[in-house]
């Protein structure tokens, strides 16, 4: 009898069947260090471009769009320039850019705009942020791919 789907019966404990993954402490340290640096950079941008709740949050938009541009660049570099290296993706992608970007803050900013009576502006802010951020990822990846292709066709300098 399968107790997993029987109401009133305990759910079968399956965690023991899943082998534990060994976490590399160097990778964890790289993620943590990158996260600290990314959060500090975001704090710096926010300090340079402060805003009051219920107003357009330029700092949040800037960090999310620039972070997305950089993740597009990083995706290409990790695959084309640094394949097989274990730390660039965790340090730069998960840590630095994960700590730098803040889409959750964009959601709070939009909610504050709506509560301040600017519902249309909130929708524009959310939609614009997503559209521009996704475009930035594509632009970063395409630009980096084009630059790498251009460098390859030029050949080595003599």
Q: What can you see in these coordinates?
A:
- There is one protein chain.
- The chain is an all-alpha fold and 158 residues long.
- It has one domain.
- Helix content is 70%, strand content 0%.
- The chain is built from 5 helices and no strands.
- The chain is globular.
How would you briefly describe this protein structure?
GO terms for molecular function: fluoride channel activity; metal ion binding. This protein is mainly alpha-helical and 158 residues long.
Q: Which helices and strands appear, and what pairs or packs with what?
A:
Elements: H1 25-48, H2 58-81, H3 88-100, H4 103-115, H5 119-154
Helix pairs in contact: 1-2, 1-3, 2-3, 2-5, 4-5
Q: Which features characterize this protein?
A:
158 residues, 70% helix
**In what range is the share of β-strand residues?**
under 5%
Rg is: 21 Å
Helicity, in percent? 55-70%
How many helices does DSSP assign?
Answer: 5
Which regions have little confidence, pLDDT < 50, spanning 5+ residues?
A: none
* Series of H and E elements: HHHHH
Strand tally is 0
Q: Give the CA-based shape.
A: globular
Q: The biggest beta sheet, please? A: none
Mean pLDDT: 90
Determine the structural class based on helices, strands and strand pairing. mainly alpha
Provide the number of structural domains: 1
Question: Ends: how far apart?
Answer: 75 Å
